[in-house]
Design a protein that fits this description.
Elements lengths: L2 H11 L5 H20 L4 H8 L2 H11 L2 H9 L7 H59 L5 H45 L8
C-alpha cells in the first residue's frame, strides 16, 4: 500500500470526527511516514510497519472522548437543515428520553459497582477491627482465667486470618468490577463509533 492510499483510507475511516481532528491525525501519520522514509525505509515498507489502517482508525476512535463521538454521531450528514431541526425537535421526547435512560442506567450501574466495592471492604475491615478488639479484650480480662484468654486470642487471630483472606477476595472482586465498568463504558462508547459500511 502506498502512502497516499494509506492516508486516503485513514481520512475516510475518521470521517465521523471533527474536520480539525481528522486533519491533525492525517498530518501526524503523514509526518510519521515521511520520517521513516527519510531514514531509508521504502514507502510500502513504512506503511506496512504502521499496521492495518482499520486497526489504527479503531484505536483513534476508541481514544476519542465520548462527548466528541456523541456530538459528531448525532450531527446530520448534510448539516442542520430545516427538516433536520424540525425532526430533532419533534423526536425529542423519544430520543431525549432514551438518551436520558441510557445515561441514568450507566450511572446506576457505576454507583452499584462502587457500593458493592465499598461494602465488601467495610466487611473486610470490620473483621480486622473485631479480631484486634477480641485479642485486646482477652488480654485485659486475664483475671477470668487462662482458658478465656487463650480462647479470645485464638478467636481474634482467626478473625485476623479471615481478614487477610477476605481482603484478597475483595481486592480481586473490586478489580473484576472495575474491568466490568470499563467494559460497560467501552460498549456504550462503541455505540457512537461508526463502523465501516454503516
Amino acid at each position: 500500500m502506498t502512502k497516499e492510499v494509506f492516508l486516503r483510507e485513514l481520512t475516510r475511516g475518521l470521517q465521523q470526527l471533527p474536520p480539525e481532528e481528522v486533519k491533525r491525525q492525517r498530518a501526524y501519520y503523514e509526518e510519521l511516514l515521511a520520517d521513516m522514509m527519510e531514514d531509508g525505509i521504502d514507502e510500502e515498507a513504512a506503511v506496512a510497519k504502521l499496521g492495518d489502517v482499520s486497526e489504527i482508525v479503531e484505536e483513534i476512535l476508541r481514544n476519542t472522548p465520548l462527548p466528541t463521538l456523541v456530538k459528531t454521531r448525532l450531527k446530520p450528514r448534510n448539516g442542520w437543515t430545516t427538516a433536520a431541526v424540525v425532526g430533532a425537535i419533534l423526536g425529542a421526547p423519544i430520543w431525549l428520553s432514551l438518551l436520558l435512560a441510557l445515561v441514568m442506567t450507566v450511572f446506576a450501574v457505576c454507583v452499584s459497582f462502587g457500593a458493592v466495592i465499598v461494602a465488601a471492604f467495610a466487611v473486610v475491615f470490620a473483621l480486622a477491627i473485631a479480631g484486634v478488639g477480641i485479642i485486646i479484650r482477652g488480654v485485659t480480662l486475664f483475671s477470668l482465667g487462662g482458658g478465656y484468654v487463650i480462647f479470645s486470642i485464638g478467636s481474634g487471630l482467626l478473625l485476623l486470618g479471615l481478614f487477610c483472606l477476605s481482603f484478597l477476595a475483595a481486592k480481586y472482586a473490586a478489580m473484576g468490577l472495575f474491568r466490568g465498568g470499563r467494559w460497560l463504558f467501552r460498549t456504550v462508547k462503541g455505540l457512537f463509533i461508526v463502523r465501516e459500511g454503516k
